[in-house]
User: Fold these one by one.
Assistant:
Number 1:
Amino acid sequence: MMTEARKETGPMNATVPSKWRRTVNLAALTALGVLAMTSCGSADVITYDLPAESARYSYEADTNGVKTVWEYTSDRPDKADTPTSQPCIADAIVKDPGKCRPEPLIFLRYDLGLDLDNTAKAGGLHSITVTGYYQDRLSKPPTVTKLRVEASVDGGKTWQPAITTQADKQNTFTAQIEHPKRDEAPGEVGLRITATDSAGDTVKQTIPKAYQLR
């Protein structure tokens, strides 16, 4: 099996493909510290040979200080899961790529409830909304079943769990974060989010400087 990942570093050559392969296109995009998956390809492709049987994998990305770690289970696909509108990148760069489908990685989208200057009021409770989602190419994505929100006001030295975190709608959660007084937290508020889905896959994303208090 083979998987491939697009990276922001210099280009690397692909290895010789095996008969069966699995493909994942990873493109890190920064928007409020959010990573997203795209189907566009480039010359910056790395390929890995993987076993055909089901196994647990870990993938880590660090983009502009935002660290994201995925853990997921994957195996050889029985059939392709790539609509013609978003073809597998391996079809363009690898001869005889075999069956192809996206990997079931959880991505996170945030509504931090900030003012226009990207700040939030110090003191009291503050609400944020976090939504988990998957690549559009994944025809039957799992459901995000659990989400943990932690905040730090000392540069990541200590982390405090949200006062409450509750499911709002499918894959969407609202958390109440307790903000200290402005003079007790002169720096930025950091966020650490951990999500788990119905397939047992997880993502942990750490945003050291999510927003400031005023």
Number 2:
Amino acid sequence: MSTTFSVRPASPHRPVRLGLRENWLQFTLLVVVNACVGGLVGLERTTVPLIGAETFHLTSDLAVFSFIIAFGVTKALTNLAAGALTARFRRKQLLVAGWLVGIPVPFALAWAPAWEWIVAANVLLGINQGLTWSMTVNMKIDLVGPARRGLATGLNEAAGYASLGATALLTGYLATAYGLRPAPELIGVVFVVTGLALSLVVRDTAAHVALELAQHPAGKEQSPGPWPTFVRTSRRNRSLRGASQAGLINNLNDGLTWGVFPLLFTQHGLGLAAIGLIKGLYPLLWGFGQIPTGHLADRIGRKPLIATGMLVQSAGFVLALALLDRPLLAGIASAVLLGLGTATVYPALIASVSDQAHPAWRANALGTYRFWRDLGYAAGAVVAGILADALGLNATIVAAAALTAVSGIAAARLITDRTAH
């Protein structure tokens, strides 16, 4: 079921309407764009921690994970800025700018002469991901209207993370055949060229935002501005606060596994192809699983999926340690539960934030939520690096399991479902 309204024409022959069916072509283009966004970051999932340890001979786990810290902090800040920037620039302009920033990334990963270059490339990658991913999800929500937010965000995230997983799997096999560099990283050139080309073609969604504002049952509302929205989303609104903390812990898990799993399973005898399978399976399930869970979030509400998904992720970490004497089985079992748990949580969280925010300040609210969520990448890398250096890699898995379970319980207490209208 789609919501259909008319407003002033976007062109002399095409009125603006909200709904997935009414905007299927633009929606599909944005799905492909976000597949390219996810593929670009997927270049790093299997090989970069091993490049730090084996190519540049870094001995500290915290030093190896520094590229994730750079990525996470930069992406989080860019997410926050992206919400504010939508007041001055159109979403399409920011989408194109994100791709232009990302052009050097695959070349730097492939031929960086020093580890500092890898870290610098991840600063650019964080800006690229913050702008492109933020704009694709905002534009999809703009197109479909309030009745299909869960499905729209599910499809958006599915495209990004399925591509991320497939790329992680592919880079593992390329690294086995051709070495850690440069072949695995150069497939990123395809993602940059395709993503930029399609972003130049897709139409902006400003007219769709105007239509939803005109039809919003709460009436017109002025945006309170970036800082008041940041405070409302982070602290004052109980439900938004619950979603933000769950998002942070969710991506803390991802940042932790990004750095820890390649090193952990290498220590237990697995090769690059097997590690690529583990690192690819997790985001593949995370990606494709969001299509049904996004739809389910529209039917049964956001909170049940968020709380359940966090607890499933916690169980995934427990399995990684419980089965570690059979490392391939441990990695696959953990990846399955982490992937399914994250798929359950991810679209429901974005849809929950969208439900709570008026269209006039929704972009800033989503930017704030995504700031806290993606700051989790950096938090996960810092926690993992400190614990791994002090207590070993296993201790980081225990900490992640405990934090995730507590976060799921907190989400169940804080988040209030608001039925989409």
Number 3:
Amino acid sequence: MKAIKLSVYQESANYKVPVSHDFRESYPLPPYSTIIGMVHYLCNFKKYHPMKVSIQGSYGSTLSDLYTEYEFKNGMKFEPSRHQINVQGLGISRGVAQVQLMTDVNMVLHIIPDDQTEVKYIFNCLKQPREYPNIGRREDLAVFKDVKVVDIIKQHLEEDLRSGKYLDKQKSARKNWAAYIPIELLENNDDIFHTDTHDTSLAAGTKYNLNKVYSLVKTRKNKPAIRRWERHEVVYTEFTFLEDTVITADSDGDAVFTV
């Protein structure tokens, strides 16, 4: 099995938590839907191409920033005392809100298309993107430090493998490195230990229910279809594989946790 491996850096980014509004909270790393959307946009795919994704990385800190927020209701007439913008008789309110930004983000992403004949095409689109890539908001530019094709294989550990380290001992370890690990992998494997990054939250990491892909579903006649998301429960955590464990890794020595 082959995968496209991306090493990415972002100075700052917001990976919006869907239920956050007044304060636009961010996930620590982008969810699967964000990465899949980025790949589909850069590849100019017009429909969903099934793929598996693995996301791991680190961030330096978080900060709060201000942004301009626009609010409107369908069909609401413009009222000078209530709205700041008049668009053809419809009223729009403009205000200031807060957004959480993750800073100094470093990531390793693995994209594994179900159709392995697409590997070369996706690699070329990411190696020479048709426009400057972004992950998160439109303004959250992403630097692709390295793009390569790697093999995904099963490997037997001869010693413990800690988060942020490679199977290749010659490579330096990464700091505060964590991954989205599918919860079923942790529940069914006693050879993985995991702890929270930065020692700031739960001892066993932080659980998220992340979006991956959606389907359009008609719920009411004469009404537009709505998005119904396929969600995956994961734990955002640092990890340790114990000696003698068989793990999934790439040919560079990075562990892979696909959804």
Number 4:
Amino acid sequence: MKKYLFLILFSCALLGHSQQIALLKYKGGGDWYANPTALPNLITYCNNNINTTIETKPETVEVGSMDIFQYPFIHMTGHGNVFFSEEDSENLRNYLYSGGFLHIDDNYGMQPYITKELKKVFPDKDLVEIPANHPIFSTAFAFPEGLPKIHEHDGKRPQAFGIFHEGRLILLFTLECDLGDGWEDEIVHNDPSNVREKALKMGANIIKYAFDN
């Protein structure tokens, strides 16, 4: 019964907020607010290139709040520690199982913390690497080799990991890529225009996948 209640709540919320996205605020001391210009720039790019009509100013929503059910797409980033309480974990799990989508972008240094906390959310699921032929790499723009490399960090290859539920990708974790830095204003990191374009195109793919699936 509780599961169906969340489904009804999520469906009703989406009727009024289907073109609005949010940034996830979490506990633990990690800088959840990193890359302040990233989401606004991604929204502008999507509205101009893939026919979305997303509100230009993204909302901020706490992981344990029922407000997360208002948004079909939530973005999470940071460099450091992440902590989910039992209530946070249950709320996030219900949101994702009810049709929501979470993109976690490691801004460098987040991996050991978020992977540990995700086991609270999904004790019976593991992050699995997403192959390059998954639809998320071609929903709007083609990335035949999978996730693009935006920033070097440790020089490792970029990887996209996911959690699936009933065949649907509900959570995307991007590592050694740093899409969010590529979405930021050009002056922040001085990335070449072609690198920023790759980041924005991949971001548009993620948004479109979240909205369509």
